[in-house]
Amino acid sequence: MGVVFEVVETPSSKDRCVNPQQPGTTPTVVVTGASKGIGAAIVRRLVGDGFRVVAGVRRTEDAAQLRGQLGERVLPALLDITDPDAVAAAAELVTGEVGDRGLAGLVNNAGIAVAAPLEFLPPAELRRQLEVNVVGQHAVTQALVPLLRRGRGRIVNLGSIGDRIVAPMTGPYHVSKFALRALSDTLRLELSRWGIQVVLVEPGAVATPIWETSIAAAERLQQTLPPNVEQLYGRAIAAARTSALRNAARGMPPDQVATVVARALTVRRPRTRYLVGTDARIAAIVARLPDRLRDRLVLSQSGGAAPDRAGATAGVADTVTSDPS
Ligand SMILES: NC(=O)c1ccc[n+]([C@@H]2O[C@H](COP(=O)([O-])OP(=O)(O)OC[C@H]3O[C@@H](n4cnc5c(N)ncnc54)[C@H](OP(=O)(O)O)[C@@H]3O)[C@@H](O)[C@H]2O)c1
Fold this sequence. Notes:
CATH architecture: 3-Layer(aba) Sandwich
Shape: globular
Helix content: 40-55%
CATH topology: Rossmann fold
Strand content: 5-15%
Radius of gyration: 20 Å
Strand order of the largest sheet: 3-2-1-4-5-6-7
Structural class: alpha/beta
Number of strands: 7
Low-confidence stretches: 1-15, 305-325
Number of domains: 1
Bound molecules: NADP nicotinamide-adenine-dinucleotide phosphate
Oligomer: single chain
CATH class: Alpha Beta
């Protein structure tokens, strides 16, 4: 398929700079997956900065808790992003909320991490991973683009350093994040003529419940797989679990990601992508190494067919396996 180049007039991004402190304007932003982790931190941050936030959650208890903690600046919306009716209802709610002003931003944050060796991954588990991290993000974006166009809003997608580099046992997550990166890049091109900026935020390891949730789901899944999975992949699975536990304990605080998301929504000229965390920056360098060299580094830390010669670079390789990934 060929690429057609055409010079297009795009509204200058310099025309737009959201300042929630400006009197008379309370810009509204939608955040998905706001019950905990990075999503909850983003909501807290944006409310603190003066935004009104429509916060997508899946349970009424989470809605009540957010409202209790943050008050009227938060409008919780019951939103499972894989449920088309819920997406349509949320879009209707947001339309009623913002009217002609439109939306100042959409933060596609909701996400899950499915982990298993690809050889044994049930197709339904891959679909579940993609349904949340890709198809759901697309559905929410599609439903809200008209409001973003009206408000010259921005889209911020929660990618991951795992959208540039992979590790064994967490393939489903990487597949989804690589796809989300392609979704972001394509949307950025397609929406540029309306001045809608699309930003990909790519954190390294963040200390959130995702690690625990992912480990628990992986252990449940493993019970349903043939017994030889343990024999064939036991070492790699154990290494991925140890890495996940370490990241749960030592990852950066979610507020660090929220700060970057707030910046991406408000600066005059946002970057197209933001790496967050030293580990993400190092892994981004490793991602550009030749394939065989990068494989050796990653495998040396992953309990796979690990050549033990990479001791000197172990610290670097560790960051590679550090996404929930
Ligand atoms: N933690 C990290 O190290 C890290 C690093 C890089 C990127 N990220 C990305 O950052 C995002 C947030 O991750 P996190 O670490 O904050 O995870 P988390 O603590 O597990 O929170 C995930 C959020 O997504 C929601 N969610 C899950 N499935 C959903 C669905 N079908 N519809 C709507 N919401 C759904 C969860 O809601 P419930 O409470 O209802 O389950 C929760 O609010 C994800 O996209 C993740 O891939 C995380």
